[in-house]
Design goal:
It comes from Neobacillus vireti LMG 21834. The chain is of the alpha/beta class.
């Protein structure tokens, strides 16, 4: 689904990514794990086109996309849920969901769009109860459910999630991660970046560990769990949580 070769990203004198290379398997969930400032967000932004790399290649379905604009990548099926819940906060919940169809409007009739939004309300009843409220008045957890729903309404083939659990109550985290597991079963390829590895390990098939812009570990879930048994690795990369 996605292949990155020798990716470098610099912010002035700061080397945020230092030649990383990864392979993302189609239909799987890949975790990107690392401490704050390790380069996780930069990597996802390079994939979605928010950042143009200084060096390296990004192949999406064997096509190089590292110079493609954001809108072209969205049309090709890449959706990015950024850290910080970037919503249209002065618009209603319902209007935000309609914007999830932005690149699909020419192919979707109104009846079908409303049917899919109704399915969102059935999955997350709190959004249905507050569909006429401004998105900015929602709690942090409700905003996260909304932004993920917007991304899914764009019908992505590759979904990028940056710290989806950040600042959420445990019950909402459980909702989000259960939804991601269901999306995987529907064939969506997912890359999730997390500081807390224990969360990502619930659903991931494979993972990479980042430190200061470099990949310092990779493997399947069992291997990454074994890394967590190291007190040093657990403290530096995984926080204090245990699976």
């Amino acid at each position: 689904m996605l292949k990155i070769n020798g990716l470098h990203v610099n912010y002035g004198p700061i080397n945020a990514l230092k030649g990383i290379s990864i392979d993302i398997a189609e239909g799987k969930i890949t975790a990107i794990i690392g401490a704050n400032g390790s380069g996780k967000s930069t990597m996802l932004s390079a994939i979605s086109g928010l950042i143009i790399p200084d060096q390296g290649e990004i192949y999406y379905k064997d096509t190089p996309i590292q110079t493609k604009p954001v809108e072209e990548r969205v049309k090709r099926g890449i959706a990015h849920v950024m850290e910080g819940r970037r919503l249209f906060k002065d618009q209603s919940v319902h209007d935000n969901l309609l914007l999830g169809f932005y690149f699909r409007n020419s192919k979707e009739n109104k009846k079908n769009m409303l049917k899919q939004i109704t399915e969102v309300y059935e999955r997350f009843p709190i959004l249905g109860q507050k569909k006429h409220q401004l998105a900015g008045t929602l709690s942090g957890g409700q905003q996260q459910l909304l932004i993920i729903s917007m991304a899914i309404l764009s019908k992505p083939r590759l979904l990028l999630l940056d710290e989806p659990s950040l600042g959420l109550a445990p019950i909402v985290v459980d909702q989000v991660y259960q939804y991601l597991d269901e999306l995987k079963a529907m064939g969506v390829t997912i890359i999730v970046s997390e500081q807390m590895a224990a969360l990502a390990m619930r659903i991931a098939d494979f993972g990479y560990v980042l430190e200061r812009g470099k990949i310092v570990g990779k493997g399947d879930v069992q291997y990454l769990k074994s890394m967590m048994d190291s007190d040093e690795m657990s403290a530096v990369y995984f926080g204090e949580a245990k699976v």
